[in-house]
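Morning!

As promised:
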Amino acid sequence: MTVQFNLNGRRIALDVDPDRRAVDILREELGLTGTKEGCGAGECGACTILVDGVNRLSCLMLAAQLSGREITTIEGLSREGGTHPLPEAFVKHGAVQCGFCTPGMILGAAALLQENPAPTRDEIRRGISGNLCRCTGYQKIVDAVAEAARAIQEGEPSS
Amino acid sequence: MRKVFLPRDMAELWSAMADEPAARVYAGGTDLLVAMRAGTVVAPALICLERLAELQGVREEGEEIWLGAATTHAALLSNPLVGRHLPLLVQALRTLGSPPIRNMGTIGGNICTASPAGDTLPPLYVLAAEVELQSPGGRRRLPLRDFIAGPGQTRLETGEILTGVRVRKPVDANCHRFEKIGQRQALACCIVSMAALLTVTPAGVVASIRLAWGSVGPTVMEAPAAEAALTGSFMTRENLHRAAVFVRQAVAPIDDIRASAAYRREVAGNLLLRLLPG
């Protein structure tokens, strides 16, 4: 079937099997390998994407469900050629080790900041509680999200 | 390749169900798609309910609140009617899965999955929820406790879907408590949970109490003897300990990867102590 949706601000139409998983469409058909598959069962958050601005898991969504949606992957988070305060702050705070959780973590944080632009550290922890990181111990991730929140509020890049 | 239907109204839904009688119906996909990938469910076709407006939202209807079956947990959490009238359900929803799971999973899905560990089920049992079922032939209502038949089993008939859940506003209750023990705070399948809805007099006497437990039996477990023991009693540690004995007799837990039956039985009783004021 032909599935039409907006991907990172671009309108696209794809001829795909409707029962393939969204994560496979993104990675294998569209080459957007920033979206990772960790557990494939909704428990790790590595495959997080934004669907109409809301963080969802692309391993538990079928291609047909992309139809008509506004999809943002990690590749589309920054404006054309620009940067975004979240990845900037992750770099600055060393909130990345192996990096596998990072795209999902950043998109989860982006959804959180959309809903709550000035979260407390506790609210940040709860906001990213669906994204597992096995390297960092989360402290630096929370630091980075807190700084990105401040930067977004001040309307400036974080570094 | 399987067909995937995304009906936009009830007519499209019934036509898809007629075309593919063996299709599996889902909304959020957080249970069904996991089971399909694990190979425990085989679906020749899929029907996704996420775009059916008829199954969305929350309505106040007189003394009752109607919750659309395909309403996500996150949508329920941010709904003012749910916040005002169903604090017990709110507490349970906050512990369910994780933010992305709550953005996808729905209350109707949590009910139809009929897991003994389903986080919304103990609250809905004590709220005496009724499910609304619909097929091309008509509608029916069933008490939730009659709808759920066993672990993973419901009385949903072929060609029928769950459209909504109805609960009476618990206007007299002044204590709404959901407690959940898991292996961690987020993304935890519960080891034991307890929902409690009480009316306590200003003097501290339990005027009425409804209790239900998750993950300690094939379905949600209730303990009428514990409720009877507490009704008319003061909320003291001694009285709660005494009632906990009845709870441990009423539950029927099993050993699994998360906890032993003995631990679950002990904790199911102990959770009553969390009702102690202060």
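Residues 52-168 of chain B form a domain with the Uridine Diphospho-n-acetylenolpyruvylglucosamine Reductase; domain 3 fold (CATH 3.30.465.10).

Hope this helps with the figure draft.
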